[in-house]
Amino acid sequence: MENKSKEPIYVTKTYLPEKAEYETYLDKIWQNGWLTNEGPLVKSLQIKLQNFLDVPYIQYTTNGTIALQLAIKVLELKGEIITTPYSYVATASSIIWEGNKPVFCDISAKDLCIDPNIIEDKITDNTCAILATHVYGIPCSVEAIEKIARKNNLKVIYDGAHAFGVNLNNKSIFNYGDLSTASFHATKIFHTVEGGAIFSKNKALAEKIRHTKSFGHKGDDHKYLGINGKNSEFHAAMGLCNLKRIDDIVEARKNLFEIYMEGLKMLPLTFISIPENVRYNYAYFPVIFENAEARERTQEFLEKQSIFPRRYFFPSINTIAYMPRGNCPVSEEISDKILCLPFYPQLNDKETNRILTAVKKSFER
Predict the structure, then answer these.
(1) Looking at the domain that runs over 9-13+245-364, which CATH code has it been given?
(2) What would the DSSP string read from start to end of 15-53?
(3) pLDDT, position 159
(4) Is the Cβ–Cβ distance between 180 and 158 less than 8 Å?
(5) What keywords are assigned to this protein (predicted)?
(6) pLDDT, tens digit, for every residue of 181-190?
């Protein structure tokens, strides 16, 4: 029976700092009148992120999609790029947008990331790169991928939209590949309302990114074909507020993750597995059902209780009309069977219990 009296619970809720703290940064913006074009707050945020993430070079961008497009552009990629069908659509659409062709390689059922065991089967004379996603913040098989790339003279880009703060073998996940990208969208663990970043280990490449995201020139020196991929002081101000609390945010998410795991462990569900050598950020709480019918039954029941999970990721990108087709049965099956439950630190005990109770009741039906 529907319960329309209860407040809706959505799959995510943006973390916001104290308004007064954000306003202190607004006061600085008003005082100096510098709104964009690498202002002092943007520079400060870049330095703080560089130190926090322990990365050599970072460029703060308009959003995570622009970061991907810039990565493809500055590496001068032309041809086929092997990528995952299980990600947000921007991973593959960025490839097409930059005039290249995505070639879909199926995922591993173990970690839902691109399956390195079948990447080489997709390589042709036209292959120029691999673009892989750290799905839900779980690292790809980076060592295997980079071994394949070296053997076949391919570039590697990692889409780390979900991977802020994730470490692999005590090393930031953003230090892998030729370039890595991140999203700082409002739904992410660390956000700047809208925003993103590109990470590089190479100084010359980092400088090229910096120029390219700013119309390709510095002053009157026009060096590259560029776009406007810069971000503003207002967005950087939000980032400076939120970065101070990121450790507390991750800890709260970890606690909620453990509550969910304990509350749902007796149900016929499959959960993501966090590798031992990974410091995780608890980005999402996806659950995989036995089949699509079970997923649909639970989703419908939760929505009647004003609880709104999300089919994330759906559909498998290789099935989207404007995308090249690919044989990706694992991705397509997972997309049909997975739900991301509401998952954010602001959930109180009552709301958490309401979610867990509803999921359990959906199986009783």
Answers:
(1) 3.90.1150.10
(2) ----HHHHHHHHHHHHHH---SSS-HHHHHHHHHHHHHH
(3) 98
(4) yes
(5) Aminotransferase, Pyridoxal phosphate, Transferase
(6) 999 999 999 9
Which architecture characterizes domain 19-243 according to CATH?
3-Layer(aba) Sandwich (3.40)
- Of 82, 76, 45, the residue nearest 61 (C-alpha): 45
C-beta separation of 97 from 122 below 8 A: no
Show Cβ contacts of residue 220 under 8 Å, excluding neighbours closer than 6 positions: none
The 8-class DSSP code of residue 283 comes to -
Distance CA(66)–CA(46), nearest Å, equals: 17
Type of residue at 274: I
Q: Which pLDDT tens digit goes with each residue over 22-62?
A: 999 999 999 999 999 999 999 999 999 999 999 999 999 99
| Residue pair 134/162 in contact by the 8 Å Cβ criterion | yes
- 170 contacts: CB under 8 Å, gap ≥ 6: 279
Q: What is the DSSP letter of 95?
A: H
For the question of whether the overall pTM of this predicted structure is more than 0.85, the answer is yes
Scanning the structure block, which residue is given the tokens 């954000």? Answer: 22
Please list the residues that pair with 155 across neighbouring strands. 129
Question: Is the model's pLDDT at 2 over the cut of 60?
Answer: no
**Residue 29 one-letter amino acid:** I
Of 262, 266, 285, the closest CA to residue 274 belongs to: 285
Domain boundaries, the chain: 9-13+245-364, 19-243
- Residue 114 DSSP code: B
